[in-house]
Hints:
4-stranded mixed β-sheet, 13 helices, 32% helix, binds uridine-diphosphate-2(N-acetylglucosaminyl) butyric acid
Amino acid sequence: MNDKILIRGKHRLSGEVVVSSCKNSAVAILPSVVLASEIVKLYDVPDIEDIKVLIKLLEELNIDVRVSGDELTIDPTNIRYIDLVSDEVKKLRASYYFMGALLGRFKHVKMYSPGGCNLGPRPIDLHLKGFEALGARIHSEGELIEIEADELIGNDIYLDISSVGATINIMLAACFAKGRTTIANAAKEPEIIDLSSMLNKMGAQIRGAGTSEITINGVSRLKGCIHDIIPDRIEAGTYIIAAAAVGENVTVSNVIPQHIEALTSKLEEMGVELEIGSDYVKVLKAEKLKPVDIITQPFPGLATDLQQPLTALMTKADGVSRVEETIYIERFKHCDELNKMGANISHENGRAIINGPTPLKGADIRATDLRCGAALIIAGLMAEGETTISDAYHIYRGYDSIGEKLRNIGADID
Length: 414
Ligand code: EPU
């Protein structure tokens, strides 16, 4: 795999970018097919590395997956349980959705702990407590986790933190639990609504997704379905920020604007002129940017995944911007890379201070995680001269055809 991205900066962006479907929906939806007894057809599946890894894991379970363009036909009728102990499991965070799905289907799962971006500590205690509340027993040995239950019985579960992953994993395990499960302080992210609407098409009885209380009435079987995955709000936000940084008249389409209101209102506060349509956001122009303060929060607050790309944009603002990261307090590795390009950012204890404006210069920098990579691409587009981003595989994990999409609107990127 070519693992470096080269950007020659300062080319103005204009034109249209069409956003792909949502990574964080798709990575929950694929493992959920373990629960189906019939064929599931998915449309608009993003062409990203995380999906390729999940397909391999489905195939390890003897699930037949046919790929045709952006359509996946997944046939779980010959599913066969095996322990998930291949290296694929460690390549992404979302492999942990096989815990809930296999526990639901087979009442047993043994697998490696998940991998994923290094954003500091990423415990899964809430997932495991949720499984225990449904009647499961957990044994951990090194990197291996084994979860089993004689039967799963619905229960009332309160999440100490409204975790996206724990909400989804408990939903998956509870689909076949006897009786009713409620998840209080559930996460409200759009990806949870997308997964629940797909599971309901398959015959699940899930109510309240998108609110802080989700109820799941257990059923005994789930059938097949056809499902279109929602657009990726983080990809949309990334291109909108890139356009605000070096663009004019850039239309980012296939967007659900309500999913990114926290971002668009912050950009307007910075002085970015936007036109917001029913399914697009157009960046008209962004000349003099004002500094702003941001705080990351669970949905509908400003997404932590957009904090990193926004930090790159803040280097252009005239004055001091402040970032408070409340979800992953160590998610600041991009700041050290941006400083190598001439930014003036200090950070500690979950907070960053960005002193702008600082013109950026091309440099050799490293993507330490997926959204760090997105931030560095934006910085490279803004910078004078050539920027080389190494460890670009992080970026391909989550951005469908990013080079091509940016080239189409005028970027010089290889
Ligand atoms: N947390 C716990 N215990 C748990 C679970 C979470 O303490 O058992 C904490 C986490 O450490 C974090 C907070 O709760 O401080 C929220 O974590 P959450 O579980 O919501 O995150 P996640 O499910 O692991 C998903 C996305 C992330 C995104 C976060 C927050 C997927 C596969 N990942 O992670 O996406 O940043 O929600 O919105 O859906 C990305 O796409 O780049 C990415 C990292």
